[in-house]
Amino acid sequence: AIDELGAWLSALDASYNKGGKKILTELLDYQGKSWVKSLAHGGYYIHRPHVNILAASTVHWVNTTATEEDRSGGFLPRWLLVCNWGQDHRLSIPDKHGPAEPVKGHIKRLRTLEAVYTLSDEAEDFYHDWDQAFSRVEDERIGAWVNRLAIMALKVALVYAATDEQATAVEVHHLRLAVKLIERCRDDLVRLLRWDLAFTHEERNRNKVIRILETEKVVPHARLLRNSHLSSRELKEVLATLEEQERIISDESATGGKVGKVYRWAC
User: Fold this and answer.
1) Cα 94 to Cα 88, 97, 98, 100, 222, distances in angstroms
2) Which of 42, 121, 182, 240 has the most crowded CB, counting CB atoms within 10 A?
3) pLDDT higher for 188 or 120?
4) How far apart are alpha carbons 244 and 164 in whole angstroms?
5) Residues of the chain with pLDDT > 70: what percent?
């Protein structure tokens, strides 16, 4: 477990960890064995690498430390992002009858479990139909995540099946629970990439403008400039991109005897 994901990402970019992200990215794509280069000994194989990392962070920390290469190179899309849009839930006093105890019991059982689970015929049909619909994405920014999220649904369903003491295979009801979680993660990801998570200066500017337009729907140019806290040049560049993508419609409007530009959110 990692206390702060952002600080860890920053450490991975340090000179003494050169190549660390590339190695970790390859390890997260389990291939039976992985070759790791070593300056001192040439390299070595890691057999059956099972990388399991649990971490927490804030959007600000990730924006500060993550890069465009982390997204485009596939490092970040290998993470299952679970977002909390409300206040943290704290279990201040350990309670042997509390909601965490059944979870602890399932985890303890999983640590000792050795079994082979396959998809039942009904589960395989269900997954095929769901995957066909799930993989159709309109937002290109989440494209790198979608295929991996679909695979993650199978892994989550396997966990549900393994914690079901009566199960001998992954059944439809295990998959239904899994895809519910994965679809929530996808929706959270869309929100993150649309409003919060940005890897370049241009993306941060764009997200500021999109947030205002999605909220207000119709915004005069002067108010958009004031509320976005962008320079005239920066706002002009963002609006030109959004118009080219047909995400906004510009129009003329008369207010107080003056004619000015207004922008309508078209999505």
Assistant:
1) 17, 9, 8, 9, 54
2) 182
3) 120
4) 51
5) 84
